[in-house]
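input
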Amino acid sequence: MTIYLDYQATTPVAPEAAAAMRPWLEEEFANPHSPHKLGRAAAAVVEVARERVLEALGEGGKGGRLYFTSGATEAANWALKCSAPGRIVTPATEHACVLDSIEWLAGQGRGVDVLPVGADGLVDLDLLEARVAGGAGLVAAMLVNNEIGVIQPVAEIARIARARGALFFCDAVQGFGRVPLPLESCDMVALSAHKVHGPKGIGALWVRDGVTLEAFLHGGGQEGGIRSGTLSPALCAGFGAAAALLGGDDVESLWATALDLMGDWQLNGAAGQRYHGNLNLRRDGVDAGRLISEVRDVAFSAGSACASGSGRPSHVLAALGLTEREARASIRLGFGRYTTAAELRTALGLINQAAERQLSFAA
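output
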């Protein structure tokens, strides 16, 4: 049996989420936007799910509207392309859905400013303030980095944005339910179900009351009159059930075990300001790609699943100042709710053994 240590790529579906979805996959089938009895029952399931996600966001969730989307990629594209006009400012370590959207917008004549980060992966707040002061309509920053687990100072970044009249968008995909999200500081927040033990194919964009958002997808306007497309009651129900379970995961003991067993590896990114379910490490002389193929009984990665087929080293690790060789010697270990200490010890033992073999051959 393969030991799964790739929680940043996706998480196992919670049994409660699967159970919530099952009736809407096997028995019920109505369109939630239809006016008849069956349609209204489906719509009710969608609204219960919406309330559960809003509750998981905390008390501040009621101060905005939650729109279901096909995932966080759609949510980020929507926020960046259809909200505030003007220049966009963002760190260089953002997810591809943000950076690629910004690159596309730049091609359309939009002003963009991609900021460098330090070796710890954190943005320089003084530099950010200077760039925002030069005129910006939107600032975007990720709560927890998907590759290195570093937690950006989102509340401070948002304060700087708002002081200059800019909106603040937060990609909270990796941090939702795991680390505190200062929702009161955010104007828009992207979420994803499959990163919190829900199904793939559904996410959400939370938009603060008073923030104007134009339609990104055009058609029937089913979702709040501005997001078109028939919603899946099954996916919504799964997302809602998964959101209701958030907040109880404890990764601290797993983190301590991993640090102890991986003592020959170096940590990438800040040591203190990070989520402890994400461990990004490097070991000089190791080839991460070979390591992944050799350790077949463990599922882990060398970075973002979105960029795994590109053949290019991680843009996040490059932004930290790592050389291409150092980046290719780096691995990402992700663990969480269903990871046992015994599994983690076994998996890390296998990874270390394979790394030692590589180094012995190179000697």
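quick obs: Residues 341-362 form the longest helix (22 residues).
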